[in-house]
# Entry
Amino acid sequence: MSRDDPKRPAPGWTLAMSIAASSLSFIDGSVLNVALPALRQSLNAGAADVQWVVNAYTLPLAALILTGGALGDHQGRRRWLVIGTALFGLASLVCAVGNSLALLLAGRALQGVGAALLLPNSLALLNSAYHGEARGRAVGIWAAAGAISAAIAPLIGGWLVAHAGWRAIFYINLPIAAAAIAIALAKVTEVKERKPSRLDAVGAILATLALLGLTYGLTLWSADRALGPTAPFALGAGLGLAIAFGWAEWRRGDKAMIPLAYFRDRAFVALNLLTFLLYGAFGVSMLLIPYVLIDAGGYSPVEGGLALLPLSILMGLLSPLMGKLAQRVGPHWPLTIGPLLIAAAFLLATRIAADQHYWPSVFPAMALMAAGMTIAVAPLTSAVLASVDAEHTGMVSGFNSALSRTGGLIATALIGGVLGAEGKGLLHAFAGAMVVSAAVAAAASVTAFVGLAGKKGKPSG
# Structure
């Protein structure tokens, strides 16, 4: 398809729309992490309640994002991006005006559904609008914009928490959602699969229920630090449903939500396993570092947001260059070195203590984490989008995003002991969580080194 073809998606506007839509998810996570201590105090919530404020969003996002990508591939990516973005905006309003934990959790769950529809279709539309090195640079700009928005959001969110209360943080999403919808409808051409096939509804239901059981059981276990009567039942049900999901996908063959033929490619498996490991470990750090600084270190919500600023600034400045470079050198070495630096950053973060200043104890870890994430994020996204044919980028983007969210989902479910600790006990538990996260990030590095060996950079069309 030539650049002058009127059916070709407008690259610049598609990039702007993709940034606006996907930034909703980045902003929401970074703002909420700063607001969690105030939210917990305001609602008199326990450790498990705090976990569910996070997981109520991540669960439907992880479970339904495959369906969101498949719907876009089959029925139109722009259509489902607009639907998902509108749903996210509505859910944010519910969270903002809600006056109870139950209503907040309902709004968070609805946000997760909206994000599951908008995220894979945002990246799929971006992938279809660019080619070759231009695609790598566009993905780098997308990653940089996400980092910048994630940097600004905690500062605004911290100020809002301090001056207007934690509910105000959800209003930030409304103008961004409106802008994304307006650009999509006015400037972005619809893109969908030429030969749509039947959606895998059974697979979507089984995946959702399996994740619900596993996450609920893990959350109960980590919050209570013991296996009561409910947690083993939930875990067993989740595991059984996960097995049923695998069997159902095998029976459907090429018509499955996740065709098993993709898993014959070593690089495809490595990329997705790396995503699961890396984002699980990174999600723990992004939740715990501001939480510990505010709760144990005496930081204000604004100061907690400022603590994360070097991470986002460095990623914002360098990700476009890294995305372009990755198209030339391939993903092997960037995805080996990046997670290794992140593992080292997590080990540095164990030095955070209640009586230490920011520059000697927090900044070195954040700077090293920024370097690792900058090296890894754009090459990982580009490699995943290039791993299959153009007609299935929505589904594959959805699958990879589901793994990243599931990694964070399971990790969040397992840190109830940290969130439930106080004082020196909180710092000790935090240090232990960072050591485990470092081991997981190192495993992601080994996965890339072994699984992507020999994978060279090349122009993608």
